[in-house]
Amino acid sequence: MKAVVKTRPELGAEYLDVEIPKPGPRDIIVKVKATSICGTDVHIYEWNDWADNRIGSTNLPQTLGHEVAGEVCEVGNDVRMVKVGDYVSAETHIYDPRDITALLGQFHIGERMKILGVDTNGAFAEYIRIPESVCWVNDDTIPPEIASIQEPLGNATYAVLGEDNDIAGKSMVIIGDGPIALLAIGVARVCGATTIFHIGKYDLNMSIGKKMGADYQLYANKELDRVAYVRDHTRGFGADIVLDMAGSQLALDEGFKVLRKGGRFTAFGIPSRSPLPIDYTNGIVFKGSQIHGISGRKMFDTWYRVRNLLSSKRLDVNPVITHILLLEDYKKGFDLMMERPRKSAKIVLFPHKDGYEKALGRRKQIRNE
Ligand SMILES: [Zn+2]
Question: Where does 163-293 sit in CATH, by number?
Fold first, then answer.
């Protein structure tokens, strides 16, 4: 089969012929219909310090990718949850049931947890092997390009809803213009946040944020008192919830300032260097802030909600998908992902021509509506 493989610890990847994977007793083999490019894939493609430390050159070659939708074509002998023909996606955090966090219901942050496409061969291929334990059966009405982005949409949903799902009638500031920030705007909107501020940088992404339902948009790279603006539009109070999806010093500084007393600050952005200073005294202690870190999705509560949001058609994430490409054109996808100012949001790849053409047809139809 064809696969996009990271072969060397340097920029790039290769489109190669590799063996079709075989299932272990509790694995499934999925024929990939669609697979989307994530920021994590870009780190591995670029082979930055994170990739070098996290994966290491001795573990290459490895197939890239972890966001996926496809059809089960083979199952291991002990697989009970899914069957051949099922339409599935994958939670990428492969939990280990021995972890105490798993026993406590926090499957997504275990000590022994592995990540699909980071610790294992990934989805930028015609077929992928996935442990049954992280398999998720999709609703048939959700097209593959949408089903594939349920993983980042899950990050967005978990970040927006937090642990208490208490956002109805509340104000929210979403900082960032990557795909997950844009998806978060849509989730916040349909789940009942009533005032949504979006802080971003790039025109294309700001226009998508508008389509996704932002009430107010503020440029992070323009001279403007954003803290005063948010206060002015929340009766001087500040926002109930702040989502940092940028991971910059500016996002942290302003994020804690625009947060109201007793509000929730959700941390998702990953800074290019760490640690970063924060105003601990005024931003957290005296403010009585709640801090919520997001690593993955709540398993499988988030997946359940995401499937319902999509299949009910309450949430339309199509505006966030800016490009669909054949898998063999992965280089173009990565170039687009790395370009600044941003010229893309979510990019979905198709290993098979027929699936790609059907997706093109759906995109055309959406544009004409
Ligand atoms: Zn991802």
Answer: 3.40.50.720
Q: Which of 35, 40, 92, 195 is catalytic?
A: 40
Task: Report CA(295)–ligand 1 centroid distance (Å).
Answer: 11
Q: What angle do CA 249, 202, 39 make, to 5 degrees?
A: 65
| 3-state SS class at 328 | helix
149 C-alpha to center of ligand 1: Å?
8
User: How many Å lie between the centroid of ligand 1 and the Cα of residue 24?
Assistant: 24
Mean pLDDT of the chain: 97
43 annotated active-site: yes
Q: What percent of the chain has pLDDT over 90?
A: 98
Spans of all domains in the chain: 2-149+317-368, 163-293
323-349: pLDDT as tens digits: 999 999 999 999 999 999 999 999 999
- Residues whose CB is under 5 A from ligand 1 (ion)? 38, 67, 151-152
Whether residue 273 has pLDDT greater than 90? no
Q: Are 17 and 69 in contact (CB under 8 A)?
A: no
d(CA 69, ligand 1 centre) in Å: 13
Is residue 7 part of the annotated active site? The answer reads no
Q: How many CB atoms lie within 10 A of CB 339?
A: 10
Question: Model's pTM, two decimal places?
Answer: 0.98
pLDDT of 272 strictly over 90: no
CATH class in words for 2-149+317-368: alpha beta
Token representation of residue 297: 């999705």
Q: How far is CA 145 from CA 148, 150, 251, 283, in A?
A: 5, 9, 30, 40
